[in-house]
Amino acid sequence: MTAGEAGSSAAADGPSMLDLIRLSPRPIFPPGGRDLYRQIAILSDMEAGREVLVVGCGRGVTAEFFVREFEVQGSGVDDRPDLVEEAEDRARREDLQDRLQFQSAPLDELPYRDGVFDVVVAELGLTARAEPADAMGELVRVTKPGGRVVLVQPVWKAPVPEERRRILGRHLGAHPLMMVEVKRILREAGVHRFHTEAWSDADTAFRSGARKPFPDFAELFTLREKLAILRRAWRRWGWKGVRQALSREMEVHRLLTRERILGLDMITGVRRLPPEDPEPGGADGAPGPDDSKVPASDDSDATEAPEVGEALADPGPGHDEQIPFPLNDSTP
To answer: How far apart are CA 151 and CA 175, in angstroms?
Structure first.
């Protein structure tokens, strides 16, 4: 089943968890929160004047964060026109329209020329809304040679049967992959020098006092906001669809917290520079340098960085809300 077919099936069965979250009456950070996106900015060398694209930007919360905190020129693209319209309205209200632009387009057909962005960041859910190879290929295409490609991706931490992967991906509204699959696709698209970090492992996300990348539904929304989300979901899917989505929470929560076979990872890489034309030789016809003596580019995979949360400064006040993942509404 393709990603598009999975999405259609999910629509028929009712909303996914991320579908419900997108109905929130207020913009919120994706899983990982402010800490994760600050780390992305640091690893990607974001600074004033750099061109940064967020793919699957939703309401534009993370794109706005990069613009405000790191003074970049921001762009966002999403395949949902209603969310793009909200992002544009928010940018105008915040007087950021000169530094932050949004467009609506399929995530596997980005509306940009080749090699125009210094950093391209793909949000959670990219691989559920387009074929993974096509979507990641587009990320690389619009990145400048030598620029950074970043994915925030749900990943399987252990082998999972294909049928179970398909069902759970539909429930989540995301399409988890094995990290080896993500790296293979990116490598074939022209990315190397990978760096990965786990944002749902026992040493970071579940450490006492750490900010969880998958906070409970009840921890984030007020009762009024929860009721507003459920009313909007009912109008679109009916109560049967809403009950189906909420009933899936127990298994997904078990996978995230007890079995630990599903996690949230961040992976960055560098788009390869185009190969240079070989020198024909010196002016006297002497052969060029021996290519066998030129060191190969570093294409090794960095190990997951330990204690990510401890290395980050206190984010302080601001947009520190996160999308809960999974839902766990314990409010009576």
So the answer is: 13
